[in-house]
From TrEMBL:
<feature type="region of interest" description="Disordered">
    <location>
        <begin position="1"/>
        <end position="45"/>
    </location>
</feature>
<protein>
    <submittedName>
        <fullName>RNA methyltransferase, TrmH family, group 3</fullName>
    </submittedName>
</protein>
<comment type="similarity">
    <text>Belongs to the class IV-like SAM-binding methyltransferase superfamily. RNA methyltransferase TrmH family.</text>
</comment>
<dbReference type="InterPro" id="IPR001537">
    <property type="entry name" value="SpoU_MeTrfase"/>
</dbReference>
<feature type="domain" description="RNA 2-O ribose methyltransferase substrate binding">
    <location>
        <begin position="80"/>
        <end position="155"/>
    </location>
</feature>
<dbReference type="InterPro" id="IPR029028">
    <property type="entry name" value="Alpha/beta_knot_MTases"/>
</dbReference>
<dbReference type="GO" id="GO:0005829">
    <property type="term" value="C:cytosol"/>
</dbReference>
<dbReference type="InterPro" id="IPR029026">
    <property type="entry name" value="tRNA_m1G_MTases_N"/>
</dbReference>
<dbReference type="Pfam" id="PF08032">
    <property type="entry name" value="SpoU_sub_bind"/>
</dbReference>
<keyword id="KW-0489">Methyltransferase</keyword>
<dbReference type="InterPro" id="IPR004441">
    <property type="entry name" value="rRNA_MeTrfase_TrmH"/>
</dbReference>
<dbReference type="GO" id="GO:0006396">
    <property type="term" value="P:RNA processing"/>
</dbReference>
<dbReference type="GO" id="GO:0032259">
    <property type="term" value="P:methylation"/>
</dbReference>
<dbReference type="GO" id="GO:0008173">
    <property type="term" value="F:RNA methyltransferase activity"/>
</dbReference>
<dbReference type="InterPro" id="IPR029064">
    <property type="entry name" value="Ribosomal_eL30-like_sf"/>
</dbReference>
<dbReference type="InterPro" id="IPR013123">
    <property type="entry name" value="SpoU_subst-bd"/>
</dbReference>
<dbReference type="GO" id="GO:0003723">
    <property type="term" value="F:RNA binding"/>
</dbReference>
Protein backbone atom coordinates (compact mmCIF):
# COMPACT_ATOMS: atom_id res chain seq x y z
CA UNK A 1 0.00 0.00 0.00
CA UNK A 2 1.45 3.32 -1.06
CA UNK A 3 1.76 5.92 1.62
CA UNK A 4 2.26 9.61 0.98
CA UNK A 5 5.27 10.37 3.13
CA UNK A 6 4.79 14.11 2.77
CA UNK A 7 1.41 13.99 4.58
CA UNK A 8 3.06 13.17 7.87
CA UNK A 9 5.05 16.37 7.84
CA UNK A 10 2.16 18.68 6.89
CA UNK A 11 0.45 20.78 9.60
CA UNK A 12 -3.31 20.23 9.73
CA UNK A 13 -5.43 23.39 9.38
CA UNK A 14 -7.24 24.53 12.54
CA UNK A 15 -5.24 22.39 14.92
CA UNK A 16 -2.48 23.19 17.35
CA UNK A 17 -1.87 26.19 19.60
CA UNK A 18 -3.61 29.52 18.85
CA UNK A 19 -2.54 33.07 19.49
CA UNK A 20 -3.25 34.10 23.13
CA UNK A 21 -5.41 37.03 24.33
CA UNK A 22 -2.74 38.30 26.69
CA UNK A 23 -5.01 37.69 29.70
CA UNK A 24 -7.56 40.31 28.61
CA UNK A 25 -10.50 37.94 28.59
CA UNK A 26 -9.45 36.54 31.97
CA UNK A 27 -9.47 40.05 33.48
CA UNK A 28 -12.88 40.73 31.99
CA UNK A 29 -14.33 37.64 33.64
CA UNK A 30 -13.18 38.64 37.10
CA UNK A 31 -15.90 39.56 39.63
CA UNK A 32 -16.45 43.23 40.44
CA UNK A 33 -16.75 42.64 44.18
CA UNK A 34 -19.83 42.68 46.41
CA UNK A 35 -22.82 44.79 45.30
CA UNK A 36 -22.96 48.06 47.29
CA UNK A 37 -25.86 48.44 49.67
CA UNK A 38 -28.87 50.34 48.31
CA UNK A 39 -28.29 53.24 50.70
CA UNK A 40 -24.72 53.64 49.38
CA UNK A 41 -25.78 53.97 45.74
CA UNK A 42 -26.32 57.66 44.92
CA UNK A 43 -29.05 56.97 42.33
CA UNK A 44 -31.12 54.79 44.70
CA UNK A 45 -34.07 56.16 46.72
CA UNK A 46 -32.61 54.53 49.85
CA UNK A 47 -29.54 56.79 49.47
CA UNK A 48 -31.78 59.87 49.59
CA UNK A 49 -33.53 58.58 52.70
CA UNK A 50 -30.16 57.93 54.35
CA UNK A 51 -29.07 61.50 53.56
CA UNK A 52 -32.32 62.86 55.01
CA UNK A 53 -31.84 60.80 58.19
CA UNK A 54 -28.30 62.10 58.58
CA UNK A 55 -29.45 65.72 58.12
CA UNK A 56 -32.22 65.26 60.70
CA UNK A 57 -29.79 63.62 63.12
CA UNK A 58 -27.40 66.56 62.70
CA UNK A 59 -30.27 68.96 63.42
CA UNK A 60 -31.18 67.00 66.55
CA UNK A 61 -27.59 67.17 67.77
CA UNK A 62 -27.56 70.90 67.11
CA UNK A 63 -30.80 71.38 69.02
CA UNK A 64 -29.42 69.39 71.94
CA UNK A 65 -26.28 71.53 71.93
CA UNK A 66 -28.42 74.67 71.96
CA UNK A 67 -30.51 73.38 74.86
CA UNK A 68 -27.35 72.92 76.88
CA UNK A 69 -26.57 76.62 76.39
CA UNK A 70 -29.88 77.99 77.64
CA UNK A 71 -31.05 78.95 81.11
CA UNK A 72 -34.45 77.37 80.36
CA UNK A 73 -34.47 73.77 81.49
CA UNK A 74 -37.62 71.78 80.75
CA UNK A 75 -38.28 68.94 83.17
CA UNK A 76 -38.53 65.36 81.93
CA UNK A 77 -42.14 64.57 81.09
CA UNK A 78 -42.90 68.19 80.18
CA UNK A 79 -43.12 70.00 76.83
CA UNK A 80 -42.25 73.55 75.73
CA UNK A 81 -44.80 75.21 73.43
CA UNK A 82 -43.76 78.46 71.73
CA UNK A 83 -45.41 81.05 69.50
CA UNK A 84 -48.30 83.39 70.33
CA UNK A 85 -51.01 81.42 68.52
CA UNK A 86 -50.00 77.88 69.63
CA UNK A 87 -49.52 79.06 73.22
CA UNK A 88 -52.82 80.93 73.25
CA UNK A 89 -54.70 77.96 71.74
CA UNK A 90 -53.17 75.61 74.32
CA UNK A 91 -54.13 77.91 77.19
CA UNK A 92 -57.66 78.36 75.82
CA UNK A 93 -58.06 74.56 75.83
CA UNK A 94 -57.54 74.62 79.61
CA UNK A 95 -54.11 72.98 79.61
CA UNK A 96 -52.14 73.02 82.86
CA UNK A 97 -49.41 75.68 82.79
CA UNK A 98 -46.20 74.91 84.68
CA UNK A 99 -44.19 78.01 83.71
CA UNK A 100 -44.47 80.92 81.29
CA UNK A 101 -41.36 82.31 79.56
CA UNK A 102 -41.56 85.91 78.33
CA UNK A 103 -39.05 87.51 75.98
CA UNK A 104 -41.38 89.83 74.09
CA UNK A 105 -44.09 92.44 74.51
CA UNK A 106 -46.30 91.47 77.48
CA UNK A 107 -48.97 93.96 76.41
CA UNK A 108 -49.87 91.97 73.30
CA UNK A 109 -53.49 90.88 73.68
CA UNK A 110 -52.86 87.14 73.38
CA UNK A 111 -49.73 87.24 75.52
CA UNK A 112 -51.64 89.19 78.17
CA UNK A 113 -54.41 86.56 78.19
CA UNK A 114 -51.78 83.84 78.68
CA UNK A 115 -50.29 85.75 81.61
CA UNK A 116 -53.73 86.14 83.19
CA UNK A 117 -54.40 82.41 82.85
CA UNK A 118 -50.98 81.61 84.33
CA UNK A 119 -51.62 83.90 87.29
CA UNK A 120 -55.01 82.26 87.88
CA UNK A 121 -53.36 78.83 87.93
CA UNK A 122 -50.50 80.04 90.12
CA UNK A 123 -47.91 79.22 87.45
CA UNK A 124 -44.44 80.78 87.53
CA UNK A 125 -43.79 83.62 85.06
CA UNK A 126 -40.15 84.07 84.05
CA UNK A 127 -38.45 86.73 81.94
CA UNK A 128 -35.80 85.39 79.57
CA UNK A 129 -33.85 86.42 76.48
CA UNK A 130 -35.00 85.64 72.98
CA UNK A 131 -31.82 83.59 72.47
CA UNK A 132 -32.63 81.46 75.54
CA UNK A 133 -36.11 80.77 74.20
CA UNK A 134 -34.72 80.01 70.75
CA UNK A 135 -32.13 77.58 72.12
CA UNK A 136 -34.60 75.85 74.41
CA UNK A 137 -37.23 75.34 71.71
CA UNK A 138 -35.08 74.98 68.61
CA UNK A 139 -37.39 77.53 66.96
CA UNK A 140 -36.43 81.00 65.75
CA UNK A 141 -40.06 82.09 65.27
CA UNK A 142 -41.06 81.76 68.92
CA UNK A 143 -42.47 85.32 69.00
CA UNK A 144 -41.12 85.89 72.52
CA UNK A 145 -43.53 83.60 74.36
CA UNK A 146 -43.36 80.01 75.57
CA UNK A 147 -45.09 77.81 78.14
CA UNK A 148 -43.95 74.67 79.89
CA UNK A 149 -46.77 72.13 80.07
CA UNK A 150 -47.17 68.42 80.93
CA UNK A 151 -46.66 65.96 78.08
CA UNK A 152 -49.63 65.49 75.78
CA UNK A 153 -52.23 63.06 77.10
CA UNK A 154 -53.28 60.57 74.44
CA UNK A 155 -56.64 58.81 74.32
CA UNK A 156 -57.46 55.22 73.33
CA UNK A 157 -58.94 54.36 69.94
CA UNK A 158 -62.21 53.37 71.65
CA UNK A 159 -62.42 56.90 73.06
CA UNK A 160 -62.62 58.32 69.53
CA UNK A 161 -65.79 56.35 68.87
CA UNK A 162 -67.24 57.47 72.19
CA UNK A 163 -66.45 61.11 71.33
CA UNK A 164 -68.34 60.79 68.03
CA UNK A 165 -71.28 59.17 69.83
CA UNK A 166 -71.38 61.88 72.50
CA UNK A 167 -71.40 64.57 69.81
CA UNK A 168 -74.04 62.70 67.73
CA UNK A 169 -71.71 62.70 64.74
CA UNK A 170 -70.73 60.02 62.25
CA UNK A 171 -67.15 58.99 63.07
CA UNK A 172 -64.44 60.29 60.74
CA UNK A 173 -61.07 59.07 62.02
CA UNK A 174 -57.68 59.71 60.41
CA UNK A 175 -55.10 56.91 60.80
CA UNK A 176 -51.44 57.53 59.98
CA UNK A 177 -49.33 54.58 58.87
CA UNK A 178 -45.66 55.23 59.72
CA UNK A 179 -45.84 59.00 59.19
CA UNK A 180 -42.78 60.13 61.14
CA UNK A 181 -42.58 63.85 60.33
CA UNK A 182 -44.16 65.98 63.12
CA UNK A 183 -44.86 68.70 60.54
CA UNK A 184 -47.12 66.24 58.70
CA UNK A 185 -48.87 65.25 61.93
CA UNK A 186 -49.44 68.91 62.80
CA UNK A 187 -50.80 69.66 59.31
CA UNK A 188 -53.11 66.61 59.47
CA UNK A 189 -54.49 67.79 62.82
CA UNK A 190 -55.08 71.23 61.34
CA UNK A 191 -57.00 69.74 58.40
CA UNK A 192 -58.87 67.45 60.79
CA UNK A 193 -60.00 70.46 62.81
CA UNK A 194 -61.10 72.29 59.66
CA UNK A 195 -63.15 69.43 58.19
CA UNK A 196 -64.75 67.87 61.25
CA UNK A 197 -62.54 64.85 61.94
CA UNK A 198 -63.31 62.94 65.13
CA UNK A 199 -59.63 62.38 65.87
CA UNK A 200 -56.30 61.01 64.69
CA UNK A 201 -54.88 57.54 65.29
CA UNK A 202 -51.11 57.02 65.45
CA UNK A 203 -48.84 54.25 66.73
CA UNK A 204 -46.29 54.24 69.53
CA UNK A 205 -43.44 53.25 67.20
CA UNK A 206 -42.47 54.53 63.73
CA UNK A 207 -44.76 57.52 64.11
CA UNK A 208 -44.44 61.18 64.97
CA UNK A 209 -45.74 62.04 68.42
CA UNK A 210 -47.37 65.22 69.68
CA UNK A 211 -44.59 67.68 70.53
CA UNK A 212 -43.89 71.39 70.34
CA UNK A 213 -43.56 71.25 66.54
CA UNK A 214 -46.97 69.61 66.22
CA UNK A 215 -48.54 72.24 68.48
CA UNK A 216 -47.09 75.00 66.31
CA UNK A 217 -47.89 73.52 62.87
CA UNK A 218 -51.41 72.54 63.89
CA UNK A 219 -52.10 76.17 64.86
CA UNK A 220 -53.67 74.92 68.08
CA UNK A 221 -55.84 72.23 66.44
CA UNK A 222 -54.12 69.64 68.64
CA UNK A 223 -56.08 71.09 71.55
CA UNK A 224 -59.39 70.41 69.71
CA UNK A 225 -58.73 67.20 67.77
CA UNK A 226 -57.89 64.26 70.08
CA UNK A 227 -55.03 61.92 69.22
CA UNK A 228 -55.19 58.21 70.03
CA UNK A 229 -51.95 56.25 70.26
CA UNK A 230 -51.99 52.47 70.07
CA UNK A 231 -49.33 49.75 69.84
CA UNK A 232 -50.56 48.01 66.68
CA UNK A 233 -52.26 49.89 63.85
CA UNK A 234 -53.62 46.80 62.10
CA UNK A 235 -55.28 45.52 65.27
CA UNK A 236 -56.74 48.98 65.94
CA UNK A 237 -58.16 49.15 62.40
CA UNK A 238 -59.71 45.71 62.81
CA UNK A 239 -61.29 46.81 66.10
CA UNK A 240 -62.74 49.87 64.37
CA UNK A 241 -64.15 47.67 61.61
CA UNK A 242 -65.77 45.40 64.19
CA UNK A 243 -67.32 48.53 65.73
CA UNK A 244 -68.97 49.34 62.38
CA UNK A 245 -66.44 51.58 60.63
CA UNK A 246 -65.30 51.25 57.05
CA UNK A 247 -61.55 51.64 56.45
CA UNK A 248 -60.26 53.27 53.28
CA UNK A 249 -56.60 53.71 52.35
CA UNK A 250 -55.18 56.50 50.21
CA UNK A 251 -52.93 55.31 47.40
CA UNK A 252 -52.09 56.73 43.99
CA UNK A 253 -52.50 53.39 42.21
CA UNK A 254 -56.04 52.60 43.36
CA UNK A 255 -58.92 51.73 41.02
CA UNK A 256 -61.48 53.84 42.89
CA UNK A 257 -61.25 57.63 42.62
CA UNK A 258 -61.95 59.78 45.67
CA UNK A 259 -64.62 61.54 43.60
CA UNK A 260 -66.47 58.23 43.21
CA UNK A 261 -66.25 57.25 46.89
CA UNK A 262 -69.61 55.86 48.05
CA UNK A 263 -68.67 55.36 51.71
CA UNK A 264 -68.37 59.03 52.68
CA UNK A 265 -71.55 59.03 54.79
CA UNK A 266 -70.63 55.84 56.65
CA UNK A 267 -68.54 55.69 59.85
CA UNK A 268 -65.15 56.07 58.22
CA UNK A 269 -61.44 55.65 58.88
CA UNK A 270 -59.09 57.30 56.37
CA UNK A 271 -55.60 55.77 56.36
CA UNK A 272 -52.64 57.71 54.98
CA UNK A 273 -49.25 56.09 54.48
CA UNK A 274 -45.78 57.55 54.73
CA UNK A 275 -44.57 59.68 51.86
CA UNK A 276 -42.54 57.52 49.49
CA UNK A 277 -43.32 54.16 51.10
CA UNK A 278 -47.09 54.53 51.09
CA UNK A 279 -49.32 52.06 52.92
CA UNK A 280 -47.61 49.06 54.48
CA UNK A 281 -48.71 45.64 53.19
CA UNK A 282 -50.72 44.52 56.24
CA UNK A 283 -52.46 47.88 56.59
CA UNK A 284 -53.34 47.83 52.89
CA UNK A 285 -54.80 44.35 53.21
CA UNK A 286 -56.90 45.47 56.19
CA UNK A 287 -58.54 48.31 54.25
CA UNK A 288 -62.02 47.77 52.84
CA UNK A 289 -61.20 49.97 49.87
CA UNK A 290 -58.14 51.67 48.39
CA UNK A 291 -58.87 55.13 47.02
CA UNK A 292 -56.79 57.45 44.84
CA UNK A 293 -56.75 61.22 44.40
CA UNK A 294 -56.65 62.25 40.72
CA UNK A 295 -53.60 64.45 40.13
CA UNK A 296 -51.74 65.89 37.17
CA UNK A 297 -49.17 63.69 35.48
CA UNK A 298 -46.62 66.44 36.14
CA UNK A 299 -46.65 65.50 39.85
CA UNK A 300 -45.60 62.02 40.95
CA UNK A 301 -47.28 62.00 44.37
CA UNK A 302 -48.74 64.18 47.11
CA UNK A 303 -47.37 64.95 50.53
CA UNK A 304 -49.07 62.80 53.21
CA UNK A 305 -50.63 65.80 54.93
CA UNK A 306 -51.81 67.35 51.65
CA UNK A 307 -53.41 64.07 50.52
CA UNK A 308 -55.18 63.72 53.87
CA UNK A 309 -56.47 67.29 53.71
CA UNK A 310 -57.89 66.78 50.20
CA UNK A 311 -59.57 63.53 51.23
CA UNK A 312 -61.12 65.13 54.33
CA UNK A 313 -62.43 68.06 52.29
CA UNK A 314 -64.02 65.76 49.70
CA UNK A 315 -65.62 63.60 52.39
CA UNK A 316 -66.96 66.66 54.24
CA UNK A 317 -68.47 67.97 51.01
CA UNK A 318 -70.19 64.65 50.29
CA UNK A 319 -71.54 64.50 53.84
CA UNK A 320 -72.81 68.08 53.63
CA UNK A 321 -74.60 67.31 50.35
CA UNK A 322 -76.44 64.39 51.98
CA UNK A 323 -77.42 66.17 55.20
Amino acid sequence: MAVDGGARGRKRAGKGPTKGSGGQRRRGLRGKGPTPRAEDREYHVAYKRKQEREVELAKQRQREAHRNRTSIKIARGHELIVGRNPVWEAVESGIEIIRVFIAGDPTDERVASVLRAASTQGATIMECTRRDLENASGETAHQGIGIEVPEYEYVAVADLLQIAQDEFKTPLIIALDQVTDPHNLGAVLRSGGAFGATGVLITERRSASVNATVWKVSAGAVSRVPVARETNLVQSLRALKEAGCFVIGLDGGADVSLRDLELANEPLVVVTGAEGKGLSRLVRETCDQIVSIPISSAVESLNAAVATGIALYEISQKRAAQS
